[in-house]
Design brief:
It is a single chain. It is built from 7 helices and no strands. It has helices at 41-47, 71-83, 106-112, 115-118, 130-147, 159-176, 196-199. It is mainly alpha-helical and 201 residues long. Helix content is 35%, strand content 0%. The protein is extended.
Length: 201
Amino acid sequence: MKRIQRKYTVRQFHQAKWDEPVIFELHRPGERGVLVPAADKAVEEAVGDGVSGLPAAAVRDTPPALPEIGQAKVLRHYLRLSQETLGSDFNVEIGQGTCTMKYIPRVNELLIRNPKMMDLHPLQDESTVQGILSIYYALDLAMREISGMDQFSFQPSSGTQALFAMASICRAYHDAKGEGDKRDEIITTIFSHPSQAATQR
């Protein structure tokens, strides 16, 4: 049986214009997405109205200033916003360079939604997680070789935590060399990760 050779290339994506209004600008007084039905009398008699039983401190004096907008408009609004993050719903080959985008290639989502990944628990016995530990170990060795570091950590669970960890490592390094008081600035660009300003204080 002859195997078919396929060549995959990244498609050119035409970026959306950044002219989508914020959802509060789409507000129309009286417009509703979903009309929540009133509770049946029998239900209300059994459990109350759901509000009168709340402590006074938990009840708002005024309703929250949320936008009043139809369900279809909400859907279109957020779909347009999703396309302003490099169209991740269409380009599965592209992974964004910042966690701020919140979108990753869909092929990655297929992996992490696999029960073998989703059902792992931090307190499982080590004998039941040798597969994922083997992956961690191999990736750890690869990242050490790439970075030139003696140790590597996968502990930070987000971009911001990783940035803070990196800044902390740099600070500890300079403190250990007795240069912590002198080396107290980090040079970056205005285009860098939005979290960097917070981690560098």
